[in-house]
Specification:
Chain lengths: 167, 475
């Protein structure tokens, strides 16, 4: 016998993102087996950093969108990576981030315990080959704002009711 | 004052709990097929052949029989091609179409309202959608059916992205694009499929089926319209969203100025969006394109002058054909006009239980809400569950206000084997005066303190993203 959830056409599979301020970290996602995103440079408004942490190994990378390595990400997490984790926890909830990255914490996870647990394993520095695809996904994400709304009905959206359940 | 014996209190909620003949059998065949998709059809096992047979048998007496039987055979041998997957999807859609029809008949009996007009069959010759994109989508969907939900990986889930990106700018392909985008995002968030604790079998099979059928040329033709002139009385707002799309649908009663019978209609606005635009940000995206959202939020009617109206009851909103009118209390509309309003027929492809969203008025109930349990409305000894999860986060209507209410306007829906009501508005009594709270009250903007804060946060978020887009996209 299937449970009710499995027989529901409108079963909630992914909780919507929780609202957060986007100035510091305009883009965060759990995708391709990584926590990855784009972090604003503190000093140069025209520059952004592409930062990522791999699930399981916590191998990390941080570089500018022009593929210059981040000076802070030598040996351990830089401030961009720390901001990435903090904002991902705001957007998705600590539990979902912990599950995706395969971080096990003794108590209820939060951004600080996630960062502490990962850095304690002395994760290796990964290569920055993901930077280009992550950055292009960020641009694709921004492009959604430019697409025209329509007043023709989309009957398929009946499968996607809004939900009060936040991530 | 409207006498109590008029209107929605005549709702026969007792009928909603009674079994419907043939429903379980049709759904059992659907379930059998859905289980087949969970394991995929790359190397089918005997149990899967059985599931495919159940689907084929269920449509044995229909014009689809031969094609579906052949498709089931090919699929069971691990040799299904695109036309076979399409035949299986069509068979599943036909079964759910019959379930939809049986449920819709039951809803008509329960509401006691005039029966919907006959099925619409007029169609405008529609511009042929870009067929290479549909072909690419179809190929991805067939790969999904082969791998099965258990065989999902990141590469497969990401396969839809280029198709969706190419489809999104073309508003004629928006239905396909919005569906594929939401579906693919769920699959990506669920990778790898092998370690999933549970699989949303009905849902993903639904999304797969619908996506596949929409790739057929002419599957979603532009509907024929007639000009609608008269008064539009909003009942409430229904909000739908996934990470990268939102749609708001206003349910309303249309009173034609020629004195014709009132009709139940809908008007929608939808937009693609970044996943970080949520809550009040959704209303902000849609507000400029549907002044009806503000009218519904403020309790006003609108005058329509030759607004295009489809045979399915959808107003294709165009601000040039609408202007604000007098105050119109949705509860008065629901009590006085709704009982004699006629719903439109459902388009053939839309005959699916998920499409059932029938405006109703409920009064004179007792609320049953135990701590942590479901909220239910009890009428004449029969209980109807309230889907409080569907209340928009950026709105004043909460489960608590429903629990305190003595009347509510809602959408009657059916999912996972039972009817539920989705509240659109609830009426409570404060110091002997009726006070109504609407789910879509903030759709047009709000002076509410919490609402204003949410609006400001959403404005800042979008402004920040637009500023980024301005810098990075136009380099
Ligand atoms: Zn860095």
């Amino acid at each position: 016998m299937l449970s009710v959830w499995e027989k529901s056409s409108t079963a909630r599979v992914v909780a919507p993102a929780r609202p957060r301020k986007l100035a510091k970290v305009p883009f965060v996602e759990l995708a391709d087996g990584r926590l990855q995103g784009v972090v604003s440079s503190g000093s140069d408004i025209g520059r952004v950093y592409v930062s990522s942490i791999s699930a399981g190994t916590y191998a990390f990378a941080c570089s500018t969108n022009n593929n210059r390595p981040c000076g802070g990400a030598r040996g351990t997490f830089c401030n961009h990576l720390r901001a990435l984790v903090t904002e991902a926890v705001l957007q998705y909830g600590a539990e979902r981030v912990a599950r995706y990255l395969k971080v096990e914490t003794a108590q209820e996870p939060d951004a600080a315990t996630l960062l502490g647990t990962m850095t304690q394993t002395r994760p290796a520095q990964g290569d920055t080959s993901a930077a280009a695809p992550v950055f292009s996904r960020f641009l694709r994400h921004l492009a959604y704002l430019e697409l025209p709304p329509t007043t023709a009905p989309l009957p398929e959206m009946q499968w996607f009711p809004t939900t009060r359940a936040a991530a | 004052m409207v006498p109590d014996d008029e209107g929605g209190c005549l709702m026969r909620t007792d009928l909603l709990g009674e079994p419907i003949e043939g429903l379980d059998e049709a759904l059992a065949a659907v379930d059998a097929f859905d289980a087949v998709l969970t394991d995929g059809l790359l190397r089918p096992r005997p149990a899967q052949a059985e599931g495919l047979d159940r689907l084929a048998e269920a449509v044995a007496g229909t014009p689809l029989a031969a094609r579906v039987a052949e498709a089931a055979g090919k699929a069971a041998a691990g040799a299904a091609g695109e036309e076979h997957f399409l035949a299986l999807a069509a068979a599943r859609a036909a079964l759910l179409g019959s379930v939809h029809d049986a449920l819709a008949t039951r809803v008509d009996e329960a509401t006691g309202r005039p029966k919907p007009a006959g099925a619409p069959d007029r169609q405008e010759p529609s511009p042929e959608p870009a067929s290479t994109l549909s072909a690419a989508a179809r190929s991805w969907l067939c790969d999904l059916a082969r791998s099965g939900w258990r065989g999902l990986d990141h590469d497969l889930a990401a396969g839809a992205a280029p198709v969706v990106s190419a489809m999104l700018p073309d508003t004629l392909l928006r239905r396909q694009a919005a569906l594929l985008d939401g579906f693919a995002a769920e699959l990506a968030a669920s990778c790898p499929g092998a370690t999933l604790e549970r699989v949303p079998e009905r849902r993903w099979a639904d999304l797969w089926m619908r996506s596949l059928l929409l790739t057929l040329p002419g599957a979603a033709p532009a509907p024929a319209t007639t000009p609608a002139t008269g008064r539009l009385l909003p009942l409430g707002v229904d909000l739908q969203e996934h990470a990268t799309a939102v749609q708001a649908q206003v349910h309303a009663v249309f009173e034609p100025s020629d004195g014709g019978a009132p009709r139940l209609v809908r008007a929608a606005a939808s937009a693609p969006k970044p996943d970080t635009v949520v809550g009040a940000g959704l209303w902000q995206l849609l507000r400029p394109h549907l002044s009806l959202l503000a009218a519904a939020g403020e309790g006003r009617a609108m005058e329509l002058d030759a607004m295009p109206l489809t045979d399915e009851g959808d107003l294709l909103w165009d601000e040039a054909h609408a202007r604000p009118a007098d105050e119109a209390d949705p509860f008065a509309t629901a009590r006085v006009v709704l009982p004699t309003s006629t719903a439109a027929a459902t388009a053939p492809l839309d005959r699916h239980p998920v499409r059932i969203a029938v405006p109703i008025l409920l009064e004179g109930y007792a609320v049953r809400a135990e701590e942590g349990g479901p909220t239910e409305l009890e009428l004449a000894g029969h209980r109807l569950a309230v889907d409080v999860d569907r209340l928009p986060a950026a709105g004043p209507l909460t489960a608590e206000s429903v629990a305190r209410s003595r009347a509510c306007i809602g959408l009657l829906r059916w999912d996972a084997g039972r009817f539920t009501v989705q509240p659109l508005a609830a009426e409570t009594v404060v110091r002997k005066k009726a006070v109504a709270v609407h789910a879509g009250a903030w759709a047009g903007g709000t002076a509410d303190k919490a609402g204003t804060r949410a609006e400001k946060a959403a404005t800042d978020a979008v402004a920040g993203l637009r500023e980024r887009a301005g810098r990075l996209l136009r380099k």
